[in-house]
């Protein structure tokens, strides 16, 4: 390493904060690789964006991104609204929604004989936009837009985060896979001197990176390095649903209130999954978060992930019937867990 280096910046954490910080530093007009070295270190052997940064919904406010970045980030404008309705059990799912059976259900096939005017009337009565074709009007109690057209958009979190890292690497950032164990302090000088980490190799050898500046961007995992940080973890689960080939899903984000009937002891159950249609024609749905002690593996599902699958059961049925009922079922469902950090004043 050159003795001319004035700054050795180590960023801990390959999430959205760490990757965008790396890009900002390396793309800054004042950045010069001969005087500044930027290193980003990530603990996961699977690379960056393995926590909430890669598994969140991706809803953003209005932005003016250059069109060249749209495909790389999975960016597009979306409609955004609140949806209230009722869930139902598919005939072959039994208690698959997790809330027992009961209520009146009707399969998608039974709507095929109804004329187009019936469906249009139902959609107008429910207030559904004409192009929101992947929710069923007969199960909709109400729809309210949450923002005017063009005011909301989305970005695919994993594509965005990993693209930021790739762009930072193109400009000189070094990416290291390793689990940070400590931040070294030069007590005499009163400043940081390095970052010690173990590799993901079989021997788990320990190494120390020299550092003049350290950016701790490990999110919910940060207290493992600095225990005094008042950060707690919130864990949520999500599913991604792929409709049948040829079924296009219109770009909407829905914050839902769904009432599931139940014949069980607990009675009807109201759930509130968030549903995001993504640009690669998949649909992402997530349930509420739960506060937990400590942080786990960003790729491992804990708690009760089945609840998300249960609560989105009716949504999968709707998606399967999008575009006029084509496709009897979704082609694939992927379950994931994600954790994000919360400070003491975060809601």
Automatic annotation (TrEMBL):
Residues 88-122, 287-309 are annotated as: Disordered. It comes from Rhodofomes roseus. One of its GO terms (biological process) is retrograde transport, endosome to Golgi. InterPro entries: FAD-dep_OxRdtase, FAD/NAD-bd_sf. PANTHER family: OXIDOREDUCTASE TDA3-RELATED (PTHR13847:SF150), SARCOSINE DEHYDROGENASE-RELATED (PTHR13847). Residues 9-316 form the FAD dependent oxidoreductase domain. One of its GO terms (cellular component) is cytosol. This is FAD dependent oxidoreductase domain-containing protein. The lineage of its organism: Eukaryota, Fungi, Dikarya, Basidiomycota, Agaricomycotina. Residues 103-113 have a biased composition (Basic and acidic residues). It comes from the Eukaryota. Pfam families: DAO (PF01266).
